[in-house]
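2 proteins. here.
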Amino acid sequence: MKKLILISLIGLITFSCTEDFLDKNKIGEQTTETFFQTDEHAILAANACYSHLWDYRYVSANFAFGNVIADDAVKGSEPGDMPAIADMENWNLNANNMMMGWKYPHMWRGILKCNQVIFNLDDVERPDMSEYIQKRAVAEAKFLRAYYYFDMVRTFGGMPIIDKPLQLEEIKKDRDSAKEVYEFILSDLIAAEAVLPLKSEYPDSEMGRATKGAAQAMLVKVYAYMASPGYSNMDFYDAQGWTNAKTWAEKLFASNEYTLYEGYFGDIFSQEGENGPESIFEIQFTDTGIDDTFTSNGNFTTVFTMPRGPWGWGLQQPTYDLYAAYEEGDTRREATIISSEAVIQNEIEHGAPETTNIIDDRTGLHSLKNYLWPDERPTFWRNSPVNERIIRLSDIYLLYAEACFHTGDEGNARDYVNMVRERARGGNEDVLPDVDASGPQLLEAIYNERRVELAMENHRFWDLNRWGLMEQEVKIDGYKVKASTTILYDEDDEGNPIIVGYQVEDAGDPVFKATNYNPAIHQLFPIPQNEIDISGWEGQQNPGY
C-alpha cells in the first residue's frame, strides 16, 4: 500500500510597492491569488494540513505527555538525555520545559495551514476545481483544525480561536475560554463529518486521509472529555456529553466500516497491520531514505523508545506497575511489553552480535508497539516506516462503554468491554473471563481495560486526568517502576539448556510517588515562555507557572 506523502504548503506574503516595475509576481512563484485554482492545488493544500502530525517534535512529544508522566512508563535512557522529560515525570514543570516548546508551536502551525485551506476554498467559487475535491479539502482541513485545537485545549486550556489567516496587526489576541474552544472544535467536526468520505470510499493510494469515521470518533472523544468527572471544575464540563458520545459512537458502529482485528494483537502495530480493519485514524509514515531530521517522513518515536544499546535511545520504558495490571494469560501483555533479557535474545536471533547488551536500563522492560527488529530497520534511523496509531475501534468501544455506564445502560457497557476482552482472549476460554460486575466495579473494569488495551499508545495520562485519578494513582498510591526477570530454561533432546520463557516479577524497589504533582496546577501544562515573549501575546500564563 502506497502511503500518503505529505507536502508542506509555504504561506506567501505579497508586498505592494508604488513602483509598477516592482509590483510584479516572481516568475514561477505561487501566491494565494494564483495557487488555489485546481484539484491538484486543493490536494496539495490539504496535504499540508497533515504535515505537523509527523514532525518528530510533535509526534514524539506525545509519549512524554501520554505515558511517562503517568504510571505506565518512566523516561528511561541516560540521565542527561532529554532531561525535560525527567522533569515532566517528576512534575518539576516550568514554562521553559523543552517538551512544551516541542508541542505548542506545531499545533498553531497546523492550524494556520488549515485556515489557509478553509479561507481560500470554503464557499469560494473555483471554476477549475471539482466540487468533490474542493469540499473534501475543506472538510479535511476542518477535521485537522479540530484535532489540533483539541490537543491544544486539553494540554494548555483555553486558547485564542483563530479561524482565518491573520494580518500582522491582528496577531495579538487574548485567550478564549476552554468552553468556547470546545464548542469551536465540535462545530468543525460536525461540519467535517457531513462531507468526508467513508474509509472504504478512498482508494488505497489515499489511505490515511481524514474520513467520516475519524470525525465521528473524534466527536465521541470530545464529548467524553467534556463529560468526564475529572473536569467537573472546568467551564466546559457538561454531563450531557455522555449521551452525545453514545450517539456518535452508534453512528460510527452503524457504518460497518470498522471491525476488531481478529489475529494476533501485536500484528495491529506492525507495518503490515497499518490502516487495518480497526484503524480509524493513523499518522502516516514512510521510509523516504533521507538522512535528515526535519525533512524525512519517518517515525522518530521508534528510535526514541527502543532499548538503548541495540539500536534505540531507551526512552519511555514501561513500568512494572503496567506489567502487573494485565491478567494472567492476557496475550496483549506479551504483544506490548518485552523484558530486557528477551530483547537481547531476540536481537541475537535476528542477527545482532552475541555481545549485545542494553545500557541505561531503568525498568528492565521495553515497549513493543513501536519496535523494529534488526532485519526491519531502515538505513537511516530517522526513517522508521511504521505508522502511529491514533484512534482504534477498541478505543471507541471502551469510550462507548464509559458513556453507557454514565447514562445508566450497564448492559451495553459490559457488552462492549467484553467484545474487547473476547478479541484479547484469542479463543482461549480459560483466560480473561467476561466482566459481569455492576456499579463502581464495572466502571473500574472499564478503566483497567482501557489501560491494558491501549497501553503505550499515549492515552494513560489523559484518561487519568479526565477521570480525576491522577493524584490517587501517581502521588498517593504511587507505582512500582522496576521489574526483575528470571530466564526459564529447559533441555533439548541432547541435554543442552534452551530458553523456554521469562518470569517477570517486582524487583522490590520502593514505590515511586510523584510528590510534586499538584492537581490544582497540573490539570494543564505551562505555555512556553519563549512563545509568549516572541509573540507579545496578551493572554495569561496558566496558574501556578
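next one coming up
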Amino acid sequence: MQKAKNLKEYREELHESLDNDFLRTTLDNFAVAYRAGRANAFKDIDVRALIREIADSKDDATARFDELYKQFKANAEASGAHVHFAKDADEANAIIAGIAKASDCKKIVKSKSMTAEETLLNHALEDEGLEVVETDLGEWIIQLRHEGPSHMVMPAIHLSRYQVGDLFSEVTGKKQDAEIEKLVKVARRELRQKYVEADMGITGANFAVAETGGIGLVTNEGNARLVTTLPRVHVALMGMDKIIPSLHDALRILKVLPRNATGQAITSYVTWITGANECATGTDGKKEIHYVIMDNGRSEMSKDPLFSQVNRCVRCGACANVCPVYRLVGGHKMGHIYIGAIGLILTYFFHGKDKARNLIQNCINCEACKDVCAGGIDLPRLIKEIHARIQDEEGHPLPSLLLSKVLKNRKLFHTLLRTAKWAQKPVESEGFIRHLPMILGKEHGFKALPAIAEKPFRDRWPDIRPNIANPKHRVALFSGCVQDFVYPEQMEAAVRVFEANDVSMEYPMEQSCCGLPVQMMGEMKASRDVAVQNLRAFETGDYDYVITLCASCAAHLKHNYPKLMKDSPSLTLKAQQFADKVIDYSSFVHDVLKVKAEDFKKTDIKATYHAPCHLCRGLDVHDAPRELIETGGMEYVECDEEEVCCGFGGTFSMKFPELSSELLRKKLDNVEATGAEVLLTDCPGCIMQLRGGLKTKGSSIQVRHVAEVLADNKK
C-alpha cells in the first residue's frame, strides 16, 4: 500500500510542472533548438565511431582504476598537489572541511560541480561555520533560492528572467531590471568581492589525467578560472570515474562533450591545471592544491558486468535534453540530484532505492537518451534493470505479477483475449470500447481503447495462407499480441504485399506476446520465460527472415532476446541466430523486396508519418517507411518532430496518463498542422495511441499502418 501511495503522491507532484506554462514553453523551445544545434555541431564528424572510441577508452580506464589512480596520485604529488581518497560522500565532505580547518580558511568560492551536489558539500561546510558562495551564475541563483539544479549543465533553466530579477532585487535590496545582460552585471558585481576575499576555491573536474597528474575543467563562464587562481587553496572534488590514462583520452572526450551538451563546437573555457603554481597570497608563496577522489558507489558499479558502463558518463546532460518526460516536468521531478536518464540510474547507486523507486518508473523507454549518449551507455536497459532489482528487493506489485503469470501461459493468455471479445460486446462501438477509459479514471479520458477483433489473425491464417510455387524468400511472421488479436487486418495487408512479391510465409502457432510489456514492468524472469517460449515456436522452421509489423516487438526480439539468455550459452546462441533474422516490415519491403512505384496506384492522398521510437532509434530505421509512402502512390508531407515519442510507452500510459496525454497532444497538434488526410506509422501500439487520441478529438484523420496503404494501393 505504501508503494502505491508514494507513486500516487509522485504523480500529484508532476502536476506542479505540467501546470507551469513557463517551464513547459522553455523546455519545449530548448528541446527543439538543441536537436538542431547538436546536428549542426556534429555534421562533419563520425559520431558513432567517436562515441565507440570514448566507450572503449572509459571501459579500459574503469578496469584499470587502481593502476591509474596510483599513477595519477604519484604524478600529482610530484608536482606539488595533495591527493586524497574518499570512500563515500560523508568522508569526502569531512576531508574538505579538514583541509579548510588546517589551512585556516573561512570563506570559500565554488565553481559548478555535480559531484559537490552529490555529496551535499555546501551544507556540510556551512555546518562547520564556513561561508560558501557558488560563482557559476545558474548555481548562484539556485543557491540563493535554496534548491538543487534542474539540469546538469544548465542548473537554472527552469527559471524566468523575471523570477531571477525579483530574486536579485531581494538580495541586493534594490529593484533590478529583468533584462538578462543587466542581471549578469548584477551577478558579476555581487560576486567580484567574494573572489578577492576567498581563502579557498572549490571546483569539480571533467578529467583527471593519470599521465600528467593534472586535471581539466570545461566551462562557459570565467568564474572557474578565478576560483582556481585567486584563493590560496584550491580543492577539486571528483568521482573516481574521472580518471583517464592520457591527455589524448581527454581531448577525445572534449571533442564530443560540448557538442553533446549544448551544441557548441567548444566551450568558452577549457582549463588545464597541473602542479602547484606560485601564489602571491600564499603564506609561503605556493598555491595549495588538493584533489579529492571519491568512490561513493562507483566501485560497486565498476564490478557489475552490466552497470560498469555507467562510468562512461561524461556528464553532458544530453539524456535530459532529448527526454520527452524531462521536457514535460523538468529536472526537479525527473531526478533526485542527478537529472535525466543517467540520473535515474545514479540515484539508485549514490542515494539509495528509496529515492529511485518512483523515478525509475518514469522512463517511457523511447530510447532517445541511448541514441545521443556520449558514452554509448544503454540507459533504457539499465533503468529497466534497476526497476527489476527494486522489485526483487521489495516485492512485486500485484498487476505485474498477474500479467507475468498470464503471459508465461500462452494458452491462458489467448483464452483471456478470446473471452474479452465477448465481454466487450455491451460497450463496443465502431471498433472502440465506449467509455472504458473513464472506468479507469478521468485522467484516461484523452484516448479511446480499441476493441478486440472478431477473429484473430491466427484463426484467419489457414484461410489466407498463400501457396508460393517459386519463392524468392522464405519468412516467418511474428504478429505480437496486438496485431494478432486487435489489428489482424495489418497482418493480412502484409500477407497480400508479400504474396505479390513471391515471398513464402509461415506463421508459427505457438508464438505469443514478445514479452516487452512485462520487461517494462520490471518482471525480468517473466520476460525471459516468454522469450524462451517464442524461440521454441520459431526454432523448427527454415526462414531467411523473421518479419514483424511492430517496431517495439522487432527491437525487443532483435536486441533483448540474446541479452535475456546470457546465463545459458546454448540459448544465447539460439537467441542470437533468431535475432539476426528479425527485420521490420518497412525495411524488408524497401530494402529486401525493393518494391517499385510502378507496382502501386497513384493517388491524391496526402500522408504524414509518425516514427515509432523503437524503429527510428531502436532499429536505426529512418528512410525506408517515408520512401515507401511515396513509392506507394501517396504524397508525403513531413510533420514537425516526427521522431519524438507519441506518449504510448506501453504500460507507461497507464501509470502516467497525465504525461502520456500531453505527449499525445503535442504529437496530434503537429499532425493536424500538416493538413494530411492519413497518418502512417509502423507500430500497433502507436496506432492505438494516435487513433484513440484522434477519435476522442473527433478528427477525420485516419491512422493506418504503412502495410495497409501499400496493400490497398497495390496494382
